[in-house]
Amino acid sequence: MLSTEPLTLTSIRKELEELSSEMILLIQKYDLDATNSLEIISIAKKKISEPKDYVRFLELSLEGRILGEAATALEKATVTD
Question: Cα–Cα distance between 33 and 1 in angstroms, integer?
Fold first, then answer.
């Protein structure tokens, strides 16, 4: 779950690791075998049989994207020319 604490690169990395661990469990549980990241959602939709697991998969995907974008923005803001 996305933290309400101020974001730092360290806190983002920690949250991404937690999200990744949970995502890996779902990938293994449902044998999600996408060859590229663009097809993972459609494969997950076909293979994940439990609605709560599919919703959680989507949540993890979205949270990961949000955190990735936040990390990129922080890195850009802290880089000096």
Answer: 25
Q: Report the C-alpha gap between 70 and 34 in whole angstroms.
A: 26
Q: How far is CA 1 from the centre of its chain?
A: 10
For residues 65 and 48, what is the distance between their CA atoms, to the nearest angstrom? 21
**For residues 42 and 58, what is the distance between their CA atoms, to the nearest angstrom?**
11
Is the distance from CB of 16 to CB of 3 less than 8 angstroms? Answer: no
The predicted model scores a pTM of 0.82
Three-state secondary structure along 38-74? HHHHHHHHHHCCCHHHHHHHHHHHHHHHHHHHHHHHH
pLDDT tens, per residue, the chain with 81 residues: 556 667 788 999 999 999 999 999 999 999 999 888 889 889 999 999 999 999 999 999 999 999 999 999 988 888 765
